[in-house]
Amino acid sequence: MDLNLKDKVAFVTGGGQGVGRRICLDLAAEGVRVAVNDLFAERAQAVVAEIEAAGGRAFAAVADITQQEEVEAAVARTGQALGPVDILVNNAGVLVERREKGGAAPLFVDTTAEGWDRIIGLNFYGMMNCCKAVLPGMKERRHGKIVNIMSEAGRAGEARLAVYSGAKAAMLGFAKAIAQEHGRDCINVNVIALGAVSHEGIKEGALNPASTPENNERLGKMINAYPIGRGLQRLARPEDVSGMVCLLASDRAAYITGQSIGISGGFVML
Fold first, then answer.
1. Distances from the Cα of 156 to the Cαs of 18, 67, 152, 160, 248, in angstroms?
2. Which whole number is the average pLDDT over 11-28?
3. What is the dihedral of CA 148, 65, 21, 142, to 10 degrees?
4. Nearest to 188 by CA among 138, 216, 149, 146
5. How far apart are CA 21 and CA 23, in angstroms?
C-alpha cells in the first residue's frame, strides 16, 4: 500500500532508541524527512546516520521537550533543515525510577511531588509543548497528523503506577480535545496505547530482545498477560508499533481522529 508520505516532514520525540527509533526508520523508508528528537545528541545523531545511510533525509532535533523554549527552537531548526512539520509523533516518555531498575514501584502514598513532576513533565507537558509548537503551522496549512504514544496504563490504570497512569490518561483526553478543536483544520489527532515492548535500549531483564520464555522466568509470566503473546511467545516489538504510526500519519487515515488504538496483544480490549 502506497501511503503517499514522500517528502512529508515528521518530528518524532524520543526518537533515539526503541520504539521511537523504529518509527523514525520506518517513516523515512516511506520517504518522510524525519527530525529525530532526543535529549541525548549521540542517540539522535546515530539514528540520523542510519536514515541517511539508507538514502533518506533526517535531522537531529536535540531538545529537552519539557522546556517549551527548547521545543520551539528545535521545531524552528527542523523547518530550516527539512521544511515545516506535517507529522508529530509524541513518543518520549518515562516510567517511575524503581520500575526502570526492575524492582517493584512504590504505592502512590509513598511517592513524592518531585517524582510526580518528572513523570508528568515528560509524559504530559512534553507532549503539550510539542503540540503547541507545531499546531499553528498545521492550522495555517490546513493539514497535520499528530500521533501520541501512550500506555495501556492510561486506559486501564495500573497499581503502583498511579501518577504514570494519570499522565498517560491525560494524553488521551488531550488528544480527543485537540481532535475536536482542529478537525475543521484537517488535523488528525490519535493515540496508540502500548503494553510492554521489548527493544534494544533495554540491556537486561525480561524486556531485553535476547530474553525468551525459556531463559527468563519473568518474561514467561509476563507473556501470559497478553493473549496474542501466548501464541507468538513474545512481547511486542517496535516494528509492531511503527506500521500503525505510518498509517495514522498518512491520508489513508484521513477519517480517523480522536481514537485510541491498542497495540498491546489484547492486554486491554475496548
1. 23, 29, 6, 13, 23
2. 98
3. 50
4. 146
5. 5
Active-site residue, from 125, 164, 226, 255: 164
Q: Indicate if 164 belongs to the active site.
A: yes
Query: 60 — alpha (psi -120 to 50), left (phi > 0) or beta?
Result: beta
Mean pLDDT of the chain: 94
Question: Which tens digits make up the pLDDT trace of 143-155?
Answer: 999 999 999 999 9
What average pLDDT score do residues 241-250 get? 98
**Cell representation of residue 69:** 523554549
* Residue 106 CB-density burial (10 A; 0-12 exposed, 13-18 middle, 19+ buried): middle
pLDDT in tens, 219-239: 888 999 999 999 999 999 999
Which domains does the chain possess?
A: 9-197+237-263 (3.40.50.720), 202-235 (no CATH)
**Closest by Cα among 66, 81, 63, 70 to 12:** 63
- Residue 14: pLDDT band with limits 50, 70, 90: very high
> In the beta sheet, which residues pair with residue 192?
149, 261
Pairing of strands 87-90, 9-12: parallel
